[in-house]
Design goal:
With 452 residues, the chain is of the alpha/beta class. It contains twelve helices and 14 strands. A hairpin with a 5-residue loop joins strand 3 and strand 4 (139-144). The protein binds iron/sulfur cluster.
């Protein structure tokens, strides 16, 4: 059971929501993020209010049960189906522990209930468009989300842990300069079903049994998209990840990674209880703004203050600061010293040793990028400066780069609502670099299959 839960709300059925231009969902207690948040993008902020619970007699599209967390499912059973609460728990186990989506196969439910479910509900999981295993055990799925959009999800097994990197949006509206996803522009937020559906697909593939044979031990919301721009759906999906009737992951094993949307970090601290990671990449405003344009809106000092509030709310919590190492950009000794100072200030402010952890990520190149990976010796020298300043620092092992599944390389299929994809392609063509098509990706898949 998760320690805290999100506000109960019933999202509209997936079929009715396929092409929403949704950026932000507003709750009663928080202010929405303005559509002007990222000036360089054309995001349309659409307010979605919680849909009222419908009665069985209403002729609505069927409710996708993957869109509901435990509380939502209980309400659906009690208020919509006129059934007992525990029936919701049985169904949740069938879906997330046994990967059954056909109500007829849920054999401990009576015939009448199964018929009712057939009539009013469905379990719709994302379709696998194709999948790629890597020679290092990493596994990537391209999952179809609707007519033209697809997102990527990656499983990374390392040293007895199995981490799934989950996407929260189709593309991303934040235009981080070193990020492959950013070059694809943005289409829409993913629904709760589309987020938890990624976990379902991977867990089923792995033969994961939450309380017996656990293959999936960690989830990181670090795939395509900025999770805090899709707050309610992400929090609801993370609730299922941490629920015993869902995937039973401990709070600290679910990590949300953000580029730094300050008000939403505060809201996350109030409404959920997961590990926080922040994509920092630079310790000073000028450099960080050039890499992460969001920094203009929420500069480093404001971001660090929000992280302090997050940690102070949760005893023994820490924040992981991700730092992508790019050759000649942010990997020099002066950058390391500035980062060490910032991390020490953070530890002092929250009065906890090692509250700040730094994860150095060697940049993973992708076609057309102007950035390069820092040389190994520079990364080690950078790490040493931090460690000498007593900052807990790890270097992420690059995994899955043979299948473009490494950090920052995820690239689905985005029906771009911004002009960014077209602009990026134009830039590549001007530089004589061939643009990738989905057919070319399929050829890569066959090559990887051979290699395995
Ligand atoms: S790094 Fe993350 S937040 Fe930045 S553009 Fe890429 S997906 Fe979006």
């Amino acid at each position: 059971m998760p320690r805290s839960r999100s506000r109960i709300s019933f999202p509209p059925p997936t079929s009715a929501r396929g092409n929403d231009a949704v950026t932000v969902i507003k709750s009663a207690e928080s202010r929405p993020i303005e559509s002007t948040l990222i000036e360089s993008t054309l995001i349309k902020s659409t307010l979605i209010e919680s849909a009222p619970v419908k009665s069985v007699s209403d002729s609505l599209p069927k409710q996708n049960l993957l869109d509901l967390d435990r509380e939502g499912l209980e309400r659906f059973f009690v208020e919509t189906l006129d059934e007992k609460r525990y029936r919701a728990h049985q169904v949740m186990k069938w879906i997330h522990h046994r990967y059954v989506t056909d109500f007829n196969e849920m054999t401990d439910l009576g015939k009448a209930l199964r018929a009712k479910l057939q009539e009013h509900a469905q379990v719709v999981v994302p379709g696998v468009q194709f999948e790629q295993p890597s020679i290092d055990g990493t596994h990537k799925w391209l999952l179809g989300m609707d007519g033209g959009n697809a997102i990527e999800t990656v499983f990374i097994p390392v040293d007895g842990r199995g981490t799934l990197c989950v996407s929260s949006q189709v593309g991303c509206a934040l235009n981080c300069q070193f990020c492959s996803t950013a070059t694809q522009g943005f289409n829409r937020n993913l629904s709760t079903a589309e987020i938890i559906g990624q976990v379902w697909v991977a867990a089923k593939h792995l033969g994961n049994l939450p309380h017996q044979r656990r293959k999936l031990t960690n989830v990181v919301m670090m795939g395509m998209g900025e999770p805090l721009m899709n707050f309610d759906n992400v929090v609801r999906a993370m609730s299922v990840m941490r629920d015993d009737l869902g995937y039973g992951l401990a709070n600290k094993r679910v990590t949300l990674s953000t580029a730094g949307i300050v008000p939403m970090i505060d809201r996350l601290g109030q409404e959920s209880d997961v590990s926080l990671a922040v994509s920092l990449h630079a310790a000073d405003d000028a450099l960080r703004t050039s890499l992460v344009p969001l920094n203009k809106k929420y500069p480093v000092a404001e971001l660090m203050a929000a992280c302090e509030r997050y940690v102070k709310r949760k005893p023994r919590a820490s924040v992981t600061f991700e730092y992508t190492m790019m050759k000649g950009i942010n990997d020099q000794p002066q950058h390391a010293r500035a980062l060490a100072r910032l991390m020490r200030q953070f530890d002092n402010a929250v009065q906890m040793h090692d509250a700040a952890k730094v994860n150095l990520i060697p940049f993973n190149p992708y076609p057309g990028t102007r950035f390069e990976r820092s040389p190994e010796e520079d990364i080690r020298a950078f790490q040493k400066i931090l460690q000498d300043a007593r900052v807990l620092t790890t270097v992420r092992r690059t995994r899955g780069d043979d299948i473009n599944a490494a950090c920052g390389q995820l690239k689905g299929q985005v029906l771009d609502r911004t002009r960014r994809q077209a602009e990026f392609k134009k830039q590549l063509q001007a530089r004589g670099i061939a643009t990738e098509t989905r057919d070319e990706v399929r050829i890569d898949t066959e090559e990887v299959d051979h290699a395995v």
